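ugh ok fine here u go
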Amino acid sequence: MDGKRKFKGVIIMGGMTRRKFVKAGAVGAGALIVGVNQLGAQEAQPKLLRVGFVGVGGRGGGLLQTALGLPGIEVVAICDTNPTRLNNALAFVERRVGKRPQGYGEDRDAFAYRKLLERDDIDCLVIATPCNWHGRMYVDCLNARKHFYGEKPIAITVREIEMIQEAHKRNPDVVVQIGFQWAASMARSDIVRKIREGAIGELIEGRFHRYNGWGGLRGWFSRRELSGDWMLEQAVHEFNLLWWVTQAHPFAAYAKGRRNVIEPENKERNITDYYTAVLEYPNGFIVHYTHGWISPPGYTGMSCRLIGTKGGADLLDCTIQLRGQQQPIRGEGAGGDTKEHMQNFFDAVRARDPKMVYAGIENGIAASYVGLMIRKSLDEGRRVTFEEVLQDKGELPPLIVVD
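structure:
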């Protein structure tokens, strides 16, 4: 890929343009409206879905609670290799709905989740495990033709990405939603559409940062072979926004950073505590991205802004500010986050339409590629190209059980 490639002229979300998406009636409750229309106006409740959960730690536990608050969802199975966490989740569901799901993984069997894939009475899965399991589990789901909502990142090596692509090619009808919940905001979708239609002119610069407080998360998060490092475990949210806007991979990246700033005596901690990167996109678009866990109180925060020849856009605030105008242009449509993102996935499963999801496999792969480019540049201390990253397959992550 070279710097002369032009951006496409439409926004593609899982193969569906945003124009078609809005026309299909997917604003707000979105796919639920479509589902109700297909079933008939007399259908007051959506079709019941029997759902299995894999991983119910911090994020997975939150997704479980969110799912139980959505209509037409029955949690019938939960898998977690931590017995205490598993039993707490089973008891939680039982208290909420009066029925205890089937539990799996109490014997710490790393592959207990495959028992859920074998059950014909489970319509879909929600997966929120440590990142080293994502690629393997997502490939298994695709091969078993089991719809799934999978937390980001989709993968932490190029080799896993290729395995997912191959499995998806064989099973294109499997509904997949990757956990980029920012994509569930219709106001943000509207701003992205406006940018792509030229509202801020030709893109010149992206100004992105995520300044976290000191230290960060511990445990498996601090081991690169399990998390992929922060540019994959966390920053892929921002990289998905860049893909959403450009529909292009950066053709080169250069990054510098620091390890061993936090807990330098901890020999197992091998993640990057701070880094800054320059991403080169087609048409001269340059993105500056800074990310770290080194900020004291008052110095934390996030920004995802774009500058163009006519003005700028704030992708988190869902606004556009044009030169010569005092008032910003605000994105039209309802906001949305995890609840709406999960609702969209369940409605796509009911409709058996992978194109309905807000953030599918294509989004997950594109975001991970950016993280992999930055990671390779950091490791090798040089500017790297997209083609070089594609050739660096990497070793498959260790499939070990971690708490």
